Amino acid sequence: xxxxxxxxxxxxxxxxxxxxAAERLHLSQSxxxxxxxxxxxxxxxxxxxxxxxxxxxxxxGELFFQEAxxxxxxVDEIPRIAEDIRSKNREKFTLVTSVPLGxxxxxxxxxxxxxxDPDFDCRIHIEGRFEIxxxxxxxxxxxxxISLPISNAIVELHVEPVLQVRMEALLPRQHALASxxxxxxxxxxxxxxxxxxxxxxxxxxxxxxYATAGAKPRISxxxxxxxxxxxxxRDNNGISIMDRTCARLLPTDSxxxxxxxxxxWVTYAxxxxxxxxxxxxDLFLDCLRAYVRRLCxxxxxxxxxxxxxxxxEST
Length: 315
Description:
The protein is α/β, with parallel strands linked by helices and 315 residues long. The protein has helices at residues 3-15, 18-24, 29-43, 59-76, 78-86, 99-116, 129-137, 201-212, 226-234, 279-298; strands at 48-51, 54-57, 91-97, 120-126, 143-147, 158-166, 168-172, 183-184, 192-196, 218-223, 240-242, 255-261, 265-272, 306-308.
């Protein structure tokens, strides 16, 4: 398969124009059109339809683009991989995770790592959970940090549970429920809820809590971002359900966490490619666990919400 045809295909999708894509690859429009025709013939799929001089993806084209994009991203990584190989004098640590876990767990753990061993290069990538699983499976990262269960990986991954974190209600400090030590699912039935969208994992967890009370949440605002959920709660748009890996609150913060009863816990784990893990991964895990222990010592209110797990423990 011609790699240039795949790159041309991607540029057409991104720019919506054969002419624009051809110009970027220094091709004539006729040559670009032939490349796309050859690609369609080779894979036996119709990738585009024409509408008002624009090329639009067919449903098959959309699915093909999702897979081809992963291949091209891997090809684009080749110069960096070669540079890594040439620079063997420094250890490389690569990690992929989500924004909340990155800010609340990974960043302080990396800070501890660098104090102990400053002479390593670190690359942290932020992705959705599907891409976290698949990119670790493709050996593009030393490890991923993610909540369990694993469901989408293209190959079997090694999974090491690290900690469990209790699910809690996030609500404005002045909210009537904030004075309670714990909040029941029944207490939430009439509350406006700020939530992620239905296909996202935290939304499913929220729905499960309401299901125990035989009800559905009264969703006031939906968003795709956990950080946006936090800000919307801070601005008194409702309350939400998450855990303390999603938000690092200061004592002066305008929002607070309150535990949900009966207790529900989320398990977080490091995932590794089948080829195993380099020594820096063990240092990261040691620093991550040390950070959680330090957090629990320094914040008595947060301490009951964390359970560190031994490597052999599971969900």
